[in-house]
Amino acid sequence: MTNSINPLLNRINRMPGETIRLPSLGKFYASGELSEDTINGEVNLNPMTMVDEIMMKSPDMLFQGTAIERVFARCSPNIKKPLDLLTSDVDFILTHLRRISFGPHVEIGFTCNNPKCKHEQEVKVPLEYFTNESKEIDLDTFEAKYTIQTKNDGRTVKLKPITFRDFLSIQQINTESLSNPDNLENYVLDSFAAVIQAVDNIVNDSPAHREFIKEWLSQIPRQDAKDIVDAVQGVQDWGPTFKYTVVCGKCNNKNELSTELNPTAFFIQPSSQKTQS
C-alpha cells in the first residue's frame, strides 16, 4: 500500500451531493452524531455505490444495523454515528437515498382490498411525496411538549424520540423469551428508557444512568407511567409518514398502501411482482 492518491477518484470526489434538512433539525444531537460543521440538521447525501446497494438488499444486515451504519457513513460526510440517529431521521434519509440512487419512484405491488375485486397490480409511488410531506420538529413548542412532571414524586422528565439503535434492540427481542417474567420486565423498562432523555439531573447518556432510570421506572405508580406513555404519543407528530392512497385500475376502489410502504423495503423488495415470481 502506498500513500499516493488514486487519480481515478478525482472526478468522483468532485461530484456534488444533495443537501437535505433532517426533520429533527439536529435538535437531539449533542454527542457527535453529526459533524461539527452541520447546521440546523442539514446534511449532504451522495448516491449509493454498488456495494451499498448489496448491503441494503440484505435483510440480515438491515436488521442488525450493519447496512445503515456502513451506507450512511459512506454516503454522507456529516453523519458520524448513524445508529444513534433518530428513527424518523433514518426513514427520511433512506427515502432520499432511494430517490437519488435509483430514481424518483418506487414500484409497489399490491392486491386491491375490495373483496369482490382482489386485483393484483403495481403502482409507481413518487418518493418526493413522503419527503415533501414530512413535518419538521416545531422548535417553538419543543420544550413544553417534551417535558412532563410526574404527579407522585414531582420528577421532571424530559422525553426524546427513539434512536435507531434502541429501535433495533427492541425489534431484535425474541418474543418467545418474553414468557419469562424477568425478560418481560426488562423489555418493558428498556422500551420506556429508550424515549427518556433525562429524569431531573440524571441524563440518559451512560449505561449506569440508564439503569438508574429503569429502576425508577419500575417503582413509579401506574398512572405516572401512563402519563409518560401519553406524552410520548403526543410528540410523535413529526418526520415522514408513509401513507399513500391509490385507485384500483380495475374497480376504482381506493387502497391505502401504508402496510406495503416501509423505507427499508424500498431496497430489499423486488421492484415488481414479475421479478418476485
Task: Note the main attributes of this structure.
277 residues, alpha+beta, rbstp2171, four-stranded antiparallel β-sheet, two-stranded antiparallel sheet, disordered C terminus
- Arrangement of strands in the largest sheet: 5-6-7-8
**Low-confidence segments:** 270-277
Distance between the termini: 46 Å
> How much helix, percentage-wise, in residues?
25-40%
Give the overall form: globular
Major sheet details: 4 strands, antiparallel
**Class from helix and strand fractions:** alpha+beta
Q: Could you say how many structural domains there are in total? A: 2
Any idea what the radius of gyration is? 21 Å
- SSE run: HEEHHHHEEHHEEHHEEHHEEHH
The helix tally amounts to 13
The mean pLDDT is 89
Percent strand? 5-15%
Task: Provide a concise account of the structure shown.
The chain has 277 residues and is α+β, with helices and mostly antiparallel strands. Helix content is 39%, strand content 15%.
